[in-house]
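hey m, so remember when u said the C-alpha cells were messed up on ur end? i reran from scratch. heres the input so u can diff it against urs
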Amino acid sequence: MRILIVEDEVSLADIVADRLKKEKYLVDVSNDGEEGLYNALTGIYDLILLDIMLPKVNGMEILKQVKSNDISAKVIMLTAKGEIEDKLAGFSEGANDYVPKPFHIDELVARVNAQLRVKQAVKDTLEYGDLSLHYKDSTLWNIETGESVSVNNKEFQMLEYFMNNPEQILSKDMIYDRIWGMDSDAVSNSLEAYLSFVRKKLGLIESKISISVLRNIGYKMVFDMDKAL
C-alpha cells in the first residue's frame, strides 16, 4: 500500500517516512502544499498524512479538493493545531483521523494501520482467473494446479496493480506512478525488466494469465479462456 506524507517539517517527514517504510508501506513525501495537492490528486495513494499549516496551499484546502475529486484515500490530519474546533473542521471535510503534534511515532503507525486494516484484512489474498496472490508471504499461486512461486516486492506490487485492474489498459505512466512513485528516476528498462520477471513467474506456475502489450498504448492482463477449455 502507498502512503503520501504532506509535511513541511522536513526532518519530521523523513522520520515518519522511514518508520512507515520499515512497516513495508510505499511512501512518498511532499514538503509543501502545492506539490502535496498535485500528488494527492493522482489517486495512487491508499492513505495521506496531511499537515494543516503548509506553505503555498494549506492542508484543509488539499483535503477539500481530495474529497471533491472523489479520491478514495484515507486522510489523517497531522498537525500542531489540536483544538476541538480544528478537529471538527477536519472531520467535517472528510478527514478519517486527527493526530496532534507532538505525537509518539508508535501511535501514529497504529493509527495508520487502523485506517488501512479493513483493506488489509479483506486482501489476505487477491484473485483473478487462476491466480491467487497471497499478502502474508508474498507468494503467487495457481488455484487450479496448486503450484506456487515467491515474488519480490516490485513483482508483488505489479501483480497487485494488474489483478486489481484486470482486462484494463494500464499505460506506462500509470504503472510508473503506482509502482515507483511520482518522483521516481526509474527508466523504461526497469518496467520492461519487471514485466519480464512477472511473466516468467506466471509461466513457472503454468498460469493461463498473460500480460499483453498494446503498442504505444500500454499493457493489459487477461485470462486466456482458450487455454482454460
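this time it looks ok to me. The chain is about 45% helix and 20% strand. if urs says something different then somethings off w ur setup not the seq
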